[in-house]
Design goal:
There is one protein chain. The protein is mainly beta. It has one domain: Galactose-binding domain-like (Jelly Rolls). It is built from one helix and eleven strands, in the order H-E-E-E-E-E-E-E-E-E-E-E. A six-stranded antiparallel beta sheet has the order 1-3-4-11-6-9, with no helix packed on it.
Length: 196
């Protein structure tokens, strides 16, 4: 009888633990146009956007996303984006292609949400370099996760925000001892959800 009760408690505990991650992902995507299917106004799919500068940014090819360049070294302060047909298996529409010559440059979505705790999920395909993803508070947002494997789709999932409150998500070229300066990558199906 005691063994049966212990077994029931273990099973009940396992079910409770398995439900926690599911509940933490409950709720809608806090990002707008996380699929990247909607082009920026006046920028038809296939039309690139470009920015060269320092500590500033511009529009991206995707609606509700902007670009930002943190690199200030000449030759490393350029960024371009373009919407191209998605190659992520099981999806349609578009993905965004980001190319930059420097580190910590990429795409941003800011002030579409404000939450104390979030979890981020994103699909990426890296041609060159590393990609960092971060969710945080405006200019205090840093990399929460970095991925450097090239040549295949990768699903970065359940990444908690490193800075609170979370009101911005970044997808930037990252640094690694394995990577050269800058990055060339695709992004599809970005998601940030409330983790409270």
């Amino acid at each position: 009888m005691l063994t049966r009760n212990i077994r029931r408690m273990v099973i009940a505990g396992a079910l409770l633990v398995s439900l926690v991650p599911m509940r933490s992902w409950a709720g809608p995507n806090l990002l707008i146009n996380g699929s990247f299917n909607q082009p920026a106004q006046g920028v038809p799919p296939g039309t690139p956007t470009s920015f060269t500068g320092c500590q500033f940014g511009g529009i991206s090819a995707a609606a509700d996303w902007t670009t930002f360049v943190n690199s200030c070294t000449a030759g490393q302060n350029h960024l371009s984006t373009v919407l191209v047909p998605s190659t992520l298996p099981g999806t349609g529409g578009y993905m965004i292609h980001v190319i930059t010559d420097g580190n910590a440059n990429g795409i941003v979505q800011y002030a579409t949400f404000e939450e104390p705790k979030t979890l981020a999920s994103i699909w990426m395909y890296i041609n060159r370099g590393c990609v960092t993803v971060g969710t945080g508070d405006d200019g205090h947002t840093g990399p929460d996760a970095t991925f450097c494997e090239t040549g295949k789709w990768f699903h970065l999932i359940n990444v908690p925000n490193g800075v609170s409150p979370a009101n911005e998500v970044i997808v930037y070229s990252g640094t690694s001892y394995l990577a050269s300066v800058g990055a060339d990558f695709y992004v599809k199906n970005a998601m940030v959800v409330n983790a409270n």
